[in-house]
Amino acid sequence: MTLPERLLWSRLRKNPEGIKFRRQHPLGEYVVDFFCSRARTVIEIDGIAHDMGDRPSRDARRDAALSGMGFRIFRIPASEVLEDFDAVADAIFRACRDVPPPSALRAATSPGGGGVFRQEYSQNTSPIGGGGPPPSGGGGGGL
């Protein structure tokens, strides 16, 4: 692990707010820097080498493949982690915390399911005025 990855891992591994992260986690044919299963989120820390040679196109293909598997990808420059790893870690926590777990989404959208999650949103509490769960953010991007 690089220094930026070690600094970030020192925060992520503490399972803040019960959010679990894995490091050097295999997904298909790839191994990602960090992974949050609950939020289906991949976090990649990119050093200067990611800007050189064919790395940008390789990273783009990798991101497309991972997105195609249903994962969100956050690419964070290593320099940002070195400047303020606490702020980067906090942004990652917020991004992963604010995504409902997949089991809640399945329950809310299943014909007979829903349980507490469905009841919680059945009283028109959705930010868009409907009765369903709040819309989820999609795609990848930076933090």
From TrEMBL:
Task: Name the domain of life this protein comes from.
Answer: Bacteria
Q: Which ranges carry the DUF559 domain?
A: 1-96
Q: Return the Pfam families for the record.
A: DUF559 (PF04480)
In alphabetical order, the GO MF annotations are: endonuclease activity
**Is Nucleus tagged as a keyword?**
no
Query: Gene3D superfamilies, per this entry?
Result: VSR Endonuclease
Sorted alphabetically, which InterPro entries does this protein's record hold?
DUF559 (IPR007569), Endonuclease_DUF559_bact (IPR047216), Restrct_endonuc-II-like (IPR011335)
Q: Where is this region: Disordered?
A: 104-143
Q: Which UniProt keywords apply?
A: Endonuclease, Hydrolase, Nuclease
Recorded hits in PANTHER family, A to Z, give: BLL0828 PROTEIN
For this entry, the protein name equals Endonuclease domain-containing protein
Q: State the organism named in the record.
A: Pelagerythrobacter marensis
